[in-house]
Write a structure and sequence with these properties.
Endonuclease Iii, domain 2; Endonuclease III, domain 1; two-stranded antiparallel sheet; 2% strand
Length: 301
């Protein structure tokens, strides 16, 4: 990296921080006094789910379970039921398992250390770093899909981020991260916000971007991306995900085991239906058998 490139990169964080101070959306998890537990819940809910759908569910969740101890004292079935239609209900089981571990190992207090957070069941590298950075102000790099896109374009000059490369992505963010904890927190959040609201995947709004003058991709004339691409998610309609969702909806709505005959009426393709049901059983999202009926985990058969 030459001197000019180093100066260009060094100019990115302060501009993003200043822009974020003026343009940050008013979101619950950004408000003063928002708990570390709320941050953990919100980060898991936000995985693959739009903000607009998360906010009302998050508020309901925290009103019912305002602490890890409160959720740990309830059943995993209730966690899955309250998850409702947020999608990927394994996240509800992960949250319940994490709450139990926090209650048992940490006295009901969400830990502030990345390694301790990673040791919780169902907590991955992104979530651990996000909680440490946003709930506790730890100066650690946090990289999500939006941050990766900003880094790819502004720093590397690529039109797309390509498949995730955790070590490389974190190292790139670490190089830019301010040493001051407060500024590091703002830059982590600001880079995500910039990627979400301005540096979009399909229609980047370069005229509104605070780092447009420093963007390597723009300076190169917006070259087409020729590197590897991340796999695209298969369509929902007719997929196993849709069938799993139909079965899960039936289980959530019932306080008693759902007979196999009822499950059979939910989807006409028997092979696909049985595959989806088998997947739910293997994931721990459903328990039971054809003889006893099927229900959510933690329910009484």
């Amino acid at each position: 990296m030459n001197e000019a490139d180093g100066e260009r990169r060094a100019g990115i964080p302060p501009r993003v921080i200043a822009w974020f101070a003026e343009n940050a959306r008013d979101l619950p998890w950004r408000r003063p006094g928002f708990s570390a537990w709320g941050t953990l819940v919100s980060e898991i809910m936000l995985q693959q789910t739009p903000v607009a759908r998360v906010i009302p569910r998050l508020e309901q969740w925290l009103a019912r379970w305002p602490s890890p101890d409160a959720l740990a004292a309830d059943s995993p079935a209730e966690a899955v039921r309250a998850w409702d239609r947020l999608g990927y209900p394994r996240r509800a089981l992960a949250l319940h398992a994490a709450a139990v571990a926090i209650s048992e190992r940490h006295g009901g207090i969400v830990p502030d250390d990345v390694d301790a957070l990673l040791a919780l069941p169902g907590i991955g590298d992104y979530t651990a770093r996000a909680v440490a950075a946003f709930a506790y102000g730890k100066p650690v790099p946090v990289v999500d899909v939006n941050t990766r896109r900003v880094l790819a374009r502004a720093v590397l000059g690529h039109g797309e981020a390509g498949p995730a490369r955790t070590r490389v992505d974190l190292a790139l963010m670490q190089d830019l991260l301010p040493r001051d904890p407060a500024e590091a927190r703002q830059f982590n959040a600001g880079a995500m916000e910039l990627g979400q609201t301005v540096c979009g995947a399909r229609s980047p709004q370069c005229e509104a971007c605070p780092i447009a003058e420093l963007c390597a991709w723009r300076a190169a004339g917006y070259p087409d991306y020729e590197g590897p691409t991340a796999p695209r998610q298969a369509r929902f309609e007719g997929s196993d995900r849709q069938v799993r969702g139909l079965i899960m909806r039936e289980l959530r709505l019932s306080d008693t085991p759902v007979p196999a005959e009822v499950i059979e009426q939910l989807w006409p393709d028997a092979v696909q239906r049985e595959r989806a049901l088998a997947g739910l059983l293997a994931d721990g999202l459903a328990i039971g058998s054809a003889d006893s009926g099927f229900t959510l985990p933690g329910s009484v058969l």
